Amino acid sequence: MSTKELEVRLKERNIRPTAVRLLVLREMMSMEEHQAFSLLDLENRLDTVDKSTLYRTITHFHENLLIHSIDDGSGSIKYSVCRRGCDCSVPQSHVHFSCTECNRTFCLDNIAIPKVGLPSGFSYESANFVFKGICSDCSKRHN
């Protein structure tokens, strides 16, 4: 993605493009398609960026709905860049898949989280739906 395209993505979410934010977003966008990443993944890939700056940048991106978080049960929150136009509301949420062999987590953008009828008086603000199993790459290695 060009710098201009990255700037547009940031501005769409009311995030001021700075050199560090552009660098972090570029790295996030370079991750394997549909694969989620952890803060540690970014720290390892962007070892020249101060850890606290990286954490603040991720937090800012999350607060402005540029990325969404995934609790895949690994003990480390994962993140993924949101699709354009996504507002991270429950109706726009999608299923995630966590591979028990390679420990990667993937966004399954085309599989919506099913609607759940909650009891009267209950309302939900977020949903986390994670399948666990063996991803296609790991399955190929077993065959």
From TrEMBL:
Residues the entry annotates as binding Zn(2+): C99, C102, C135, C138
Obligatory cofactor(s): Zn(2+)
Signal peptide: none
Protein's name according to its UniProt entry: Putative transcriptional regulator
Biological process, per Gene Ontology: negative regulation of DNA-templated transcription; regulation of secondary metabolite biosynthetic process
Cofactor note: Binds 1 zinc ion per subunit.
Entry similarity comment: Belongs to the Fur family.
Alphabetized UniProt keyword annotations: DNA-binding, Metal-binding, Repressor, Transcription, Transcription regulation, Zinc
